[in-house]
Amino acid sequence: MLKRRFSLATAAAAAVLAATAVAGCGTNAQPIHVNLAASEVLAQAAQKTTEVSSYTVDAVVDVSHPNEGSGKLQGRMVYQSRPELALDLTVDTAGFGGRELPGGARVIVQGETAYVRVDTLNKVLGATKPWVKVPLSEAGDSGEVSRVLDQVQQFDLAGVTKMITSSQDVQAAGSESVGGEDTTHYSGTFPVDAAVQQLPADKQERAREGLAELKDVKFDIWVAADGLPRKLTLNGAKEGAELDATLMFKGYNESVDIQAPPADQIGELPERTTD
Question: 109-115: long-range contacts (C-beta < 8 A, 24 or more apart)?
Fold first, then answer.
């Protein structure tokens, strides 16, 4: 498994936390009034993201450390909250310090069950099928599976949008086209301590641990007329360590079809192994 000593490698996960818990019941998006202050736009965007029932996000996260090397995570997640929680995450690239995750990873969540496919993980667990079925209530009992599921947190919409509302210096930075849509670009920074406090209480500890090596995080967000972000970048650094993340959002409230893997390719989680 990938080395996880370097907490900046999980900083993106903390910064976009709460991944499997975006609740919502649809949205009636209205155009943002052009006279709204930048901080008000962020507050409205954070509220609207909690009402989103589905979306797709592409993410690229780069990290580096002067002593431990560099790493990269790249992938895509399709998410829905209704009629039940479901998501399909594909990690194309994952590596740190010269150690890669061959073949990437795939995670499908339906309701209270996760299906995980990682070749190297299967070897560690002794799994006999390509996919491992894991009740989410038991995921924490397996360090290997828990680490894979942590990747899901790096693609969340509501968590990161909520965190940036802690910014005290956000300003409008012009109008730009993102993915063929007109957006307004906002730029600012957020203090880590204040940003973490915007998250639900049960998410704060992990977020604080992941962002511990960063001081203030610079962000840029591009918000469309419906009040929802289309692009978000995060940049942070401290004592030579750096984080650079880009998330592209689309497909808000569109119908998605997330299916469990074929039954004959799914195995149960083997007995607990030494972590």
Answer: 109/20, 109/85, 109/136, 109/152, 110/84, 110/85, 110/86, 110/258, 110/260, 111/84, 111/85, 111/86, 112/136, 112/137, 113/260, 114/139, 114/145, 114/149, 115/260, 115/261, 115/266
